[in-house]
Design goal:
Elements: H1 3-22, H2 37-41, H3 53-64, H4 86-98, H5 109-125, E1 133-137, H6 140-155, H7 158-162, E2 168-173, H8 178-186, E3 194-197, H9 207-219, E4 223-230, H10 242-252, E5 255-259, E6 284-287, H11 289-292, E7 300-304, H12 307-314, H13 344-379, E8 384-386, E9 394-399, H14 403-415, E10 422-426, E11 429-435, H15 443-454
Parallel strand pairs: 2-3, 2-4, 4-5, 5-6
Antiparallel strand pairs: 1-7, 6-7, 8-9, 9-11, 10-11
Bound molecules: pyridoxal-5'-phosphate.
């Protein structure tokens, strides 16, 4: 692409992007296609000879976009709703343009130092201690796997060379995200050595059940090494009692990792800083700017107060990657599996600067407020029941009736194309789950979703 052609098509692409962001609500949130439709619409082989950019862009519009689920749609309230804000998208475009690989300080000081700066800003805004080291990974799943590997390094350093972690046991709640168990699988802990600690009526890990399990495992000659607490569990956004869990972790010498992938950033609003109570005693914590911090996927921030252990778990430097030591030159490749590292900090820096702490806090506050309003409406409607407390912006509820009724209700609401809600199972019952997290979502969108849920009932 010549510079002139690049400029022309970039302008065309940006025009499309600006229109899309302004009118994402004109699309159905979920695409009306069947599995395989897109594959069938595309050639089976790549082109032998290059194609004009105009044709490629046209195919993007006519073939790819109709197969898209619109996460940027203001009616997207499934899973944890997210949004790619304008500043975040601009950062992503510029990062792709520079195309730096920040494996070492030398391969890109900008990548490495901006990662340090942005993660430090975020840490301060969340009220986390100042002795934390931050590193960006693609997802919370990857971040947590690294935390669990560091925990293993602390408890059983011989595993790095010997490869036998037999007897190591990890604890998390039965409401924890599947990524915790996957992390344990990935580093060879074994699913049978992951204990799912029961929760209380509000879906929070029961600390006394944790101590009892640890005692029992120790008595059986096993090696408890790590406990993972969650601030904002995936189904209900419950908050584990981190301070009580930290007490137990300290008593037994366990690494405490906190999964705050979704909810951690709520602490940017000072009145929600209490949600991280006890996290100053954690060995590591993950939060995802690509969830509720308006930064395009992917960017996950892992913090640890024991970077030397994370480094010990992963550092392996072949000769061709050796560079001169300098006390301020950080080589992020030493702290994890990936060698190559994208410039993810740039989009986060754009977002943090453009909105500022107070701007971000205001949006998060509004999302939580609309969720609380909806929770009250559900509580006041005797056809429905709320299935969990609503500490953040996610509401779990069901229509009183059978699971089939609720499945049909969810299908009907989602078929509207106006909103997309997801589901979960709580107390053995099928529930609807509405999560507010998209910055285009307004109170009216939430109320519209409630109207669609209740439509046909009166
Ligand atoms: C609490 C929690 N942890 C981890 C994850 C995994 O996030 P990621 O997709 O970044 O791996 C999720 C995803 O929703 C989550 O809710």
């Amino acid at each position: 692409l010549s510079p002139e052609e690049f400029r022309k098509f970039a302008h065309e692409a940006v025009d499309w992007m600006a229109d899309y962001l302004a009118h994402a609500d004109r699309y159905p949130v979920l695409p009306g296609i069947k599995p395989g439709d897109l594959i069938d619409a595309l050639p089976r082989c790549g082109p032998e000879h290059g194609e004009p950019m105009s044709v490629i862009l046209e195919d993007f519009r006519s073939k790819i976009v109709p197969a898209a689920t619109h996460w940027n749609h203001p009616g997207f309230m499934a899973y944890f709703a997210t949004s790619a804000s304008g500043p975040g998208i601009l950062g992503e475009m510029l990062a792709a343009t520079l195309n730096m690989n920040g494996m070492l300080w030398k391969t890109s000081p900008a990548v490495v130092e901006l990662e340090q700066v942005t993660l430090d800003w975020l840490r301060r805004w969340m009220g986390l201690p100042d002795n934390l080291f931050g590193i960006i990974f693609d997802t919370a799943s990857t971040s947590s796997m690294h935390a669990i590997a560091a925990a293993r390094e602390m408890a059983a350093p011989e595993v790095r060379t010997e490869g036998d972690g037999a007897g190591l046991v990890l604890y998390t709640s039965e409401q924890a995200h599947s990524s915790i168990e996957k992390g344990a699988i990935a580093i060879g802990i074994g699913q049978k050595n992951v204990r799912k600690i029961p929760v209380d009526a509000e879906f929070r890990m029961r600390p006394e059940a944790l101590s009892a399990e640890v005692d029992q495992d120790r008595a059986s000659g096993l090696r408890p090494f790590c406990v993972v607490a969650t601030v904002g569990t995936t189904s209900t956004t419950s908050i584990d009692p981190v301070a009580a869990i930290a007490e137990i972790a300290e008593h037994y010498g366990l690494w405490l990792h906190v999964d705050a992938a979704y909810a951690g950033v709520a602490a940017i609003a000072p009145e929600f800083q209490h949600i991280l109570k006890g996290c100053d005693r954690a060995d590591s914590l993950v939060t995802n700017p690509h969830k509720w911090l308006f930064t395009p996927v992917d960017v996950s921030a892992l913090y640890t107060r024991r970077p030397e252990i994370l480094r010990r778990a992963f550092s392996l430097v072949p000769e061709y990657l050796r560079t001169a030591d300098h006390p301020r030159a950080l080589n992020y490749m030493d702290y994890g599996v990936p060698l190559g590292r994208r410039f993810r900090a740039l989009k986060l820096w754009f977002v943090l600067r453009y909105y500022g702490r107070e701007g971000i806090a205001e949006i998060i506050r509004a999302h939580i407020g609309w969720a609380q309003e909806l929770a009250r409406q559900i509580d006041n409607d005797d056809r429905f029941e709320r299935m969990a407390p609503t500490p953040f912006s996610t509401v779990c509820f069901r229509r009183k009736g059978s699971d089939e009724d609720n499945r049909a209700l969810l299908d009907r609401v989602n078929a509207s194309g106006e909103v997309y809600l997801s589901h979960t199972i709580l107390h053995g019952k099928y529930c609807l789950r509405l999560a507010i997290g998209n910055m285009g979502t307004t109170r009216e969108h939430v109320q519209r979703a409630w109207k669609l849920v209740t439509a046909g009932d009166r």
